# Entry
Amino acid sequence: MKMIISAIRRGGASGVRQVTLDGVAAGYPGRPVLSQLDAVIPAFATTAVVGPNGSGKSTLLGAVAGVISVTAGTVTHRTGARPAYVVQRSAVSDALPITVRDTVAMGRWGRRGLWRRASARDRSVVEGCLERLRIGPLADRRLAELSGGQRQRALVAQGLAQEADLLLLDEPVTGLDEAARRIIAEVLAEVTAQGVTVVQATHDLRAARRADHCLLLHEGRLLDSGPPAGVLIDEALERLWGLPARR
# Structure
């Protein structure tokens, strides 16, 4: 399997689609965001979703995850694939009286159900994800007590605990220190190499350039897509942000 994945990635993930969006429109009550959006997310690769604030990055992830209803068009997943959605840390209330271990364990609910007792396998997966994100020593602390970087790593660990084929992350490294950024980037690279398709909405152009594929959004539409070197060019960055291509 790893040899097949490596061959696909060397060939630009040609021919294998994880998700296809055809003419997708989506948004919120009274506020449409995506409009007639056509895009492809390749399987077994990392895709960066890039664009200015309000361009539709989070809405696209929500539509792919199924947590935001599509009002037109279709979102088609690779047969048998399951998505896991990692929200921004700011989306989790400080009032929730849950520990870091509880937070990660929530990622197992989809597999075992909310009311069934955790199995030995569930507990092993949770502990492995805690260690993978280097938050094992924090497992018994309340989520609200953590720093921003620690909390985001707990949410990424929750996503990994779902053992999904598709991992969707909304701004996973925004506002984090360099150490937390590096840990999350290393883990995402590892799971991609193991066959998970990773999609992250990001403002971090360094992270976007490390991706295999890039979707550049503007005002709810796909402006460009393809390898980051061909998408994140001077003209596009100056047009959308007034930034040079290399920072």
Q: What stands out?
A: The longest strand covers residues 17-28. Confidence is low (pLDDT under 50) at residues 1-14.
